[in-house]
Design brief:
Strand content: 25-35%
Number of helices: 13
Distance between the termini: 72 Å
Radius of gyration: 28 Å
């Protein structure tokens, strides 16, 4: 019966010989969470012209399936109507006339895309001790007992060539499995789940120490001259093969050790080399604390039909640099100073893949410290969506010490600071997965360019929305207090960047969680991620579920000069302002008309906490005020629902 219904849904003109392998992106997989009560995109690949049908397990009949035809590139997409949320898992079926893919443990609820740099990436295991000691948290949250919170972490990849897929799997934020979940994302999900009682899915696509331009698509970021110049120097395609500089460097390394080309020759006998399971670090094997060159070799038999095809070699991060050879030809090289953070993906031209087996030789150069293969990347030989796993036994040999290696011609290359590289490698692969909203915690890497951020950040938001095809709600976290150094204390770029973040709220459906009262000037990664999550969740609850708590912090509504003082009256101050902590209220500054000499001000709460009166010694007629206008200043004034005043400077 299933086959008969399936045939009725698919074009009768197709024959089995005309069909290619059906495949789905990594994010459409077991354990996924679909956004409830809407139409969500489900997409994948098949041979051009193939008709593909999709059916959710909540639909009673196969006839209710939705179908689409793969386009000239092989991509297909359907819009699938989702039901109300339920804690009972369901399934998803995708099929052609010849193949069926079944996705199990599918949940329906609320889905959030979570992106940014390290404060979004920061995993729960890094703050587990602080969580255990936190007061007021739901015991389920502290115990990581959240079987209906699922998360998908996008594997790090920087690419100026837009990728159509990524690596990653859905996991449950429960017990030990929760420890690798983004803490901010987890606590946001917990706050939502406590209020709504529905499954929550988190797509975590973040990378520590990354600037906003890396997360912005190339057509947008190229409007900014500084980044256009960078992209021009790199070129349009990092998959074009190793540069002449790389070829000459690795040739010099081989010549220095009198190896000539023997180690890269497919016929070389490596039987006397040490066998070790890879990927692994130097310290975990016989190489130990070696700083310098190590060689890895492996010969793999190719599946039938792969010979003469263009392939891709995927490798985990290599500490620090590498020259990678296939059948004696250098197919890829990374000579960047932060190469130890970068998974490798090297194109193997069809001309190099000229036999039914492949000899892979990797010359790894550790310049100091660790060495070898890191974590966070696959080790695989791939053709389209098929793959041959390469992890396992490799032959290893110790080479030159670092002191004997020729001078390294470091290149910029493509990395996690490259404009558009994280959009191409980590955002585009999950687009256009259906989400309720987007969470963003980033800005630390851009504190030197606040004026540019004021333009680039909202441009990124608008671009993401256009690419998703809808005005997806966007919720950001404002930077917490931190000592960024002498220049930040003098020029106030951090204050101006926070102001640039706040200016993004002029866009529709943009909200901002405030953190000036829960930061740590000595730690750029403050541990209180649970309150950050609560404040983000308040925005979602207010905007979509008639939440009663206003997440907007107290905002200056009027500045009124008085005799020798300035009265600042606030909106969004339910219950009035309250001062937390010991000592006087600090963080306010005032200035007089025509002056640029700001002076610290004393502050007095008046009008039942809805206003403050500011005074400074020797200033008779202040006209303007600002608050927390520095990198380290911490807030101590909160409204009745626990939201602090945001930093501001009156104009």
């Amino acid at each position: 019966m299933k086959l008969a219904l399936l045939t009725g849904l698919l074009s009768a003109s197709l024959t089995p010989a005309a069909l290619a392998q059906l495949s789905l992106p990594a994010i459409v997989s077991d354990g996924m969470v679909l956004q409830r009560e809407t139409e969500v995109p489900i997409w994948g690949w098949a041979k051009p012209g193939t008709e593909v049908a999709v059916k959710g397990g909540w639909l009673g009949s196969w006839i209710a399936a939705t179908s689409a035809t793969a386009d000239d590139t092989g991509r297909w997409q359907v819009m699938l109507r989702t039901p109300e949320a339920t804690t009972e898992p369901t399934s998803l079926s995708v099929w052609t006339r010849e193949e069926t893919l079944n996705i199990a443990d599918v949940h329906v609820g609320e889905v959030l895309l979570c992106s940014g740099q390290s404060n979004m990436e920061w995993e729960l295991h890094r703050i587990a001790g602080a969580v255990a000691g936190a007061e007021g948290l739901n015991p389920k949250t502290k115990g990581y007992d959240r079987p209906d919170v699922h998360y998908f972490t996008v594997q790090r990849r920087a690419s100026v060539v837009v990728q159509n897929d990524c690596a990653g799997t859905w996991r449950t934020a429960q017990g030990e499995d929760a420890m690798a979940c983004s803490a901010v994302a987890y606590f946001t999900a917990c706050a939502l789940q406590d209020e709504l009682g529905v499954p929550v899915g988190l797509i975590n696509t973040s990378w520590g120490g990354t600037p906003v331009e890396a997360w912005t698509s190339r057509p947008v970021v190229e409007r900014f001259p500084r980044h256009a110049e960078t992209l021009d120097r790199i070129g349009a395609d990092e998959d074009s093969g190793p540069s002449d500089v790389a070829v000459e460097f690795w040739r010099a390394v081989r010549a220095k050790a009198f190896w000539s080309d023997e180690f890269v020759d497919p016929r070389f006998d490596d039987s006397d080399w040490v066998e070790e399971v890879q990927p692994s670090a130097f310290k975990d094997g016989f190489l130990g604390s070696h700083d310098g060159v190590a060689w890895y070799r492996r010969t793999v038999s190719l599946p039938r039909g792969w010979e003469g095809e263009e392939l891709t070699l995927h490798l985990p991060p290599i500490d620090d640099l590498d020259g990678t050879y296939v059948n004696g030809t250098l197919v890829g090289s990374t000579l960047t100073k932060n190469g130890y953070t970068q998974p490798r993906s090297y194109r193997i031209p069809a001309s190099v893949n000229d036999r039914d087996e492949m000899a892979i030789a990797i010359c790894c150069l550790d310049t100091g410290g660790g060495g070898g293969f890191g974590s966070g990347g696959s080790m695989m030989l791939a053709r389209d969506t098929e793959g041959v796993e390469l992890s396992g036994p490799w032959r290893v040999r110790k080479g030159l010490p670092a002191s004997a290696v020729p001078e390294i011609p470091y290149t910029r290359g493509v990395d996690h600071w490259t404009p558009s590289a994280l959009y191409g490698g980590m955002i585009e692969p999950v687009r256009p997965y259906g989400v309720r909203g987007m969470l963003w915690y980033q800005g630390e890497a851009n504190v030197a360019f606040p004026d540019e951020y004021r333009l680039l950040f909202p441009a990124m938001i608008v671009d993401w929305r256009q690419r998703w095809g809808q005005e997806v709600p966007f919720y950001l976290v404002q930077l917490a207090p931190f000592d960024y150094g002498e220049r930040a204390a003098k020029d106030r770029p951090v204050a101006r960047l926070r102001d640039a973040q706040a200016s993004a709220m002029t866009l529709p459906m943009v909200g901002m969680a405030l953190t000036n009262d829960i930061g740590n000037p000595k730690d750029i990664h403050p541990v209180n991620k649970w309150e950050v999550g609560r404040r983000l969740a308040l925005w979602i609850l207010r905007d979509h579920f008639e939440g009663e708590i206003d997440p907007v912090g107290p905002t200056p509504a009027a500045l009124t000069p008085e005799a020798g003082a300035l009265r600042v009256t606030f909106d969004h101050a339910p219950g009035g302002l309250r001062h937390v902590g010991e000592g006087p209220i600090t963080g306010f500054e005032i200035v007089g008309e025509g002056s640029d000499e700001w002076a610290p001000a004393t502050a007095e709460l008046v009008e039942e906490g809805s206003a403050v009166v500011l005074r400074a010694e020797g200033m008779s007629a202040p006209t303007r005020a600002r608050y927390l206008w520095s990198d380290t200043a911490q807030g101590s004034l909160l409204n009745g629902v626990g939201i602090p005043i945001a930093p501001f400077e009156s104009r």
